[in-house]
Amino acid sequence: MATQDDRFLRACRRAAVRPTPVWFMRQAGRYMPEYRAVRARFSLLDIVRRPDLCVEVTLQPVRRLGVDAAILFSDISVLFEGLGVPFELQEGVGPVVPQPVRTGEAVERLDPGGVVERLPFVMESIRLLRRELRVPLIGFAGAPFTLASYLVEGGPSRTFAETKRLMHGDAGLWHALMERLTSAVESFARAQVEAGAQAIQLFDSWVGALAPADFDERVAPHLRRLVAALRQTGVPVIYFGVDTGGLLERIAALEPTVVGLDWRVDLGEAWRRVGYDRAVQGNLDPSVLRAPWPLVERRARQVLDAAAGRPGHVFNLGHGVLPDTDPAVLARLVEWVHEQTAGAQAPGAAPPAGGAS
Ligand code: CP3
After folding, report:
1. Ligand 1 in contact with 91 (CB < 6 A)?
2. Rounded CA gap, 288 and 319, in Å?
3. Whose CA is nearest to atom 18 of ligand 1?
């Protein structure tokens, strides 16, 4: 195996590392010409199902951007195939489930026991990638609430009306659904770690739609069990959701290794609320990448200043790269963060005063 630059993994563990590691959610995708060239010939699911293509697309941003971690190319909806649920990925829309899961019979048809057998190509891609990569490989899965939202709504939603109707109206059925999804995510993520994934990110993209009381009663018990089980594998567990400003203390209480922050919170304040015993990841607004460079630099500087040189910051965006982002700006940002943080932190040193550069 190639020697690894593991500053990303060490930062997840809150070791003092220089420079600050950087990777981007959705770092592989349509904003890259080489990705579009592959997508012109193959569907997204073809790419996911063919390890040779999956490896190529996962490596594209590592080569072009110089990021400190790779994320397996896949999609959260791939787990629906693992559960035996028919779905489509519609361009410009996202995952669509033609027969939504809203009844006891539909929940019982979900088959968490078959997930690993139905998705052997994912583990094969991970094994192949580990031979090629010199940076750590992040595996991932959708988290139970976000997966449930697609299954119950039948597709993307703004209000999550059907999901909440079920969650509020039939607690027994809701918990049965969450239990099956939790088991499925657990076995899928474990299999990814066994195949060689060195960290797991749980994407709970839509959890910010929940009232805190619903998070506490209807979602957190399942997440707590899931995070604890995944931490037993020994790899860092990153929990990320969008619009989680009202839930940060609750998310920290799940005890993920790393809390992913979206851009709506100030990273310094958010880290204080999460607690310095957790690493944090984030949180530049992805839309800023389309601004003139001086503003990109100013906003990135503000993220670094908010992190104040504390051990345990992984630089990232507050959500995925937008399709109209210039890859050259992302590459420049990686280089800039590395330069700015090359000498910023010494083990045991007091964090520099905010605003220092
Ligand atoms: O580089 C990476 O980050 C790995 C690849 C990745 C994809 N999806 C590929 C993809 C990852 C980590 C995901 C996760 C994912 N998928 C999430 C969680 C992260 C987030 O953005 O909140 C969610 C909610 C999905 C569901 C999904 N899949 C959506 C909403 C879309 C967008 C629909 C569209 O066409 O705009 C997809 C499709 C998708 N998944 C694309 C990519 C690169 C779009 C490009 C394409 O079709 O080739």
Report:
1. yes
2. 12
3. 203
Rounded Cα distance between 342 and 6, Å, is 15
Angle at 176 between CA 173 and CA 179, to 5 degrees: 150
CA atoms lying within 13 Å on the CB side of residue 50 = 13
The whole-angstrom separation of Cα 82 and Cα 277 is: 35
Spot the catalytic one: 14, 39, 64, 190: 39
Task: Tell me how far the alpha carbon of residue 26 lies from the centroid of ligand 1, in angstroms.
Answer: 7
The rounded distance, in Å, linking the Cα atoms of 236 and 257 is 5
For residue 327, give Cα distances in angstroms to 66, 269, 346. Answer: 11, 30, 32
From the CA of 95, how far away is ligand 1's center (Å)? 9
Ligand 1 atom 22: residue of nearest CA: 205
Q: Does the pTM of the predicted model rise above 0.85?
A: yes
If one residue of 89, 122, 125, 147 were mutated to test the ligand 1 pocket, choosing by the most ligand atoms within 8 A of its CB, it would be 89
Q: How confident is the model at residue 5 (pLDDT cuts 50, 70, 90)?
A: confident
Q: pLDDT tens-digit profile of 117-162? A: 999 999 999 999 999 999 999 999 999 999 999 999 999 999 999 9
